[in-house]
Specification:
The chain folds into 3 domains: 2-10 and 199-296, Cobalt-precorrin-4 Transmethylase, domain 1, CATH 3.40.1010.20; 13-103, Rossmann fold (3-Layer(aba) Sandwich); 105-194, 4-hydroxy-3-methylbut-2-enyl diphosphate reductase, catalytic domain (Cobalt-precorrin-4 Transmethylase, domain 1, 3-Layer(aba) Sandwich), CATH 3.40.1010.20. Helices cover 40% and strands 17% of the residues. The chain is built from 11 helices and 12 strands. The chain has helices at 13-27, 45-53, 64-68, 85-93, 104-118, 132-138, 174-187, 199-212, 227-240, 255-258, 274-285; strands spanning 2-5, 35-38, 57-59, 75-78, 97-100, 122-126, 145-148, 164-168, 192-194, 217-221, 244-247, 263-268. A 4-stranded parallel sheet has the order 1-12-10-11, with helices on both faces. The protein is flat. The two termini are 27 Å apart. The structure holds iron/sulfur cluster. The site of iron/sulfur cluster has 15 residues, from helix 1, helix 5 and helix 8.
């Protein structure tokens, strides 16, 4: 098949730095052992397995406050998604060594939330429930921040006459949040908008939509739990009108997705290691799809 290698794709700077930091700690003979990562370092099992090989223990779970209670000694690593102040305080109270791999873009959003809360704002944070990033962001000013997924989630809140701000999670898509923000602006004309979708996410999505226009189908390599990988599938489907599928590895590719197709685009979430994506590209370059899709039913 003709393969369009969509660029940029794969690891972003935040993930590269987080992985590098954990490897450095694991290789440092003076680091206090055991070394725990509070949650998955990034939402990708291959990246987590790489850290396993260094003897690093990844605590799986999205609630950082619950996870920190499992750590009684050694070193704890905060992931690229960031943690709340309450988690930092708990780590300190437990006497743990802390390695902070929070992405600078996430820290920037935390700083913004604290600044807005200090300024008396009520903050609507558009994010995905159950994802660690909203938990950390909201924990910066728990009395001032409300997590919403859609504008409807704000309806039951007492917001009349308040100073209002809307802030977005870093790994959403601006196409996705646009409608929510527009509805909020109509309901609360005074609301101030802070688009915190990070540049890495934005550039990967824009490239995927642009390049998908010359593809028959797009394969996104990423973990099912990776928010930004799922958003890549969504923007290709909704903005470029092309079929798109998420695969964890080459083994997930279904022949019927490719039947009758000539050009396939490949991209990868910002938490996907390059070797996994390379395998997918190589497989597709050597792949001869069936002439056309078989009729279903
Ligand atoms: Fe940072 Fe964005 Fe990468 Fe998340 S996706 S680690 S916010 S650069």
């Amino acid at each position: 098949m003709e393969v369009v290698k969509i660029s940029p794709r794969g690891y972003c700077y935040g993930v590269v730095d987080a992985m590098k930091l954990v490897r450095q700690v694991a290789e440092n003979p003076t680091a206090k052992k055991p070394i725990f990562v509070l949650g998955l370092i990034v939402h990708n099992r291959h990246a987590v397995e790489e850290l396993d090989r260094y003897g690093v223990i990844s605590l799986d779970g999205e609630n950082r406050l619950e996870l920190i209670e499992q750590v009684t000694e050694g070193t704890v690593v905060f992931t690229a998604h960031g943690v709340s102040q309450a988690v930092r305080e708990r780590a300190e109270a437990k006497g743990l060594d802390v390695v902070d791999a929070t992405c600078p873009d996430v820290t920037k959003t935390h700083d913004l939330i604290r600044h807005l809360a200090d300024g008396g704002y009520t903050i609507l944070y558009i994010g995905r429930r159950g994802h660690p990033e909203p938990e950390g962001a909201m924990g910066e000013a728990p009395d001032h921040v409300h997590l919403i997924e859609t504008a409807a989630d704000a309806e039951g809140l007492d917001l009349a006459g308040r100073k209002l701000a809307v802030v977005t999670q870093t790994t959403l898509s601006s196409w996705d949040t646009e409608e929510t923000i527009q509805s909020l602006k109509e309901a609360y004309p005074q609301i101030e908008v802070f688009n915190e979708i990070c540049l890495a996410t934005q550039l990967r999505q824009e490239a995927a939509v642009r390049e998908a226009a010359r593809c028959d189908v797009v394969i996104v390599v990423g973990d099912i739990r990776s928010n930004n990988s799922n958003r890549l599938v969504q923007v290709v489907q909704e903005q470029a009108g092309r079929p798109a599928y998420l695969v964890d590895t080459v083994a997930d590719i279904e022949p019927e997705w490719l039947a009758g197709k000539q050009t396939v685009g490949v991209t990868a979430g910002s938490s996907t290691p390059s070797p996994i994506t390379r395998e997918v590209v190589q497989f597709l370059e050597g792949y001869e799809p069936a002439a056309q899709a078989t009729a279903q039913g």
